[in-house]
Structure formats: structure tokens, C-alpha cells
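Just curious. Invent one:
>
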Amino acid sequence: MNREVSMKITNDAPQTAPVQQVNQPTATAPARKKPHTGKPAGDTVEISGQVDAEVQARQAEQAQRVAAIKEQVKAGNYEVDSRKVAEKMLARSNEK
């Protein structure tokens, strides 16, 4: 069952002004400059006090863990669990 379909394309759409003309400021409305605030332009991120406190708490916990490991290494009694290391290596390689 073959059907023949034909389509006619015409340019009946109204003509639009070129982009250059549309984007030019008009004589009645002078272009305004944004005041310079000394901050870089672009996106900004503000962290709430609660999130900042949580980040600082995690950093403090991490610093304590690192200090404890350093002490164990100095004392010569730090032991590496090779099974945990291998499991984490495999898990990370599977993530990619």
C-alpha cells in the first residue's frame, strides 16, 4: 500500500527585524550600567549557618581520625586491613 505524499513549503511568515536592530538600545531609553560591587559577576552560593556548622563538625571529626592514625603510625602499632583496602579498591573500580 504505497501512498504518495506531497508537501509544499512557502515563506508566508511575516518578516522579522534582524537581531542587530532588535538588540540596539533606543534613543529614548539610555543604556544603564550596573554598579560595580567589587564582586565577580556570575552565580553565587550562600551556605546556611546550619550547613556550615555541619561541614565544620565533619572536618573536625576527620581531623581527629587523622590525628589518631598518625599517633598509631608513630607508635608503630597501626595495622592495615588488607581485605578492607581490596574491597574499597574493587568498589571504586566498579563505579567507573
Observations:
- The chain has a mean pLDDT of 78.
